[in-house]
Amino acid sequence: MGFPIPDPYVWDPSFRIFYSIIDDEHKTLFNGIFHLGHDDSADNLAELRRCTGKHFLNEQVLMQDSQYAGYAEHVRAHDGFIHQLDNWHGDVKWAKNWLVNHIKTIDFKYKGKI
Predict the structure, then answer these.
(1) Is the pTM of this model over 0.90?
(2) Is 90 exceeded by the pLDDT of residue 102?
(3) Which residues are annotated as a binding site for Fe cation?
């Protein structure tokens, strides 16, 4: 059971982590998946992959710097998403679901801890 997928697929305050850089990057990921859903092009996929890699790195550095206990679990989740992007089969619904549920379950665990 997961969280509802917003329609239209846009970031809203229910996804707020309260770290402005992370919230801004999450907005970018929502936009990237939204655009991929409207044009499943190599360029849109490459841009989503670039933004995702940057965001995951930034988030992981914050976790390492704060010695966040859930770091290893979080990195495994990130690695799984990157693997799916690197082996893309056009499943935008999966990507939408993954991001929504990742933020609201995995990311919400570090609120106030990094």
Answers:
(1) yes
(2) yes
(3) 26, 55, 59, 74, 78, 102, 107
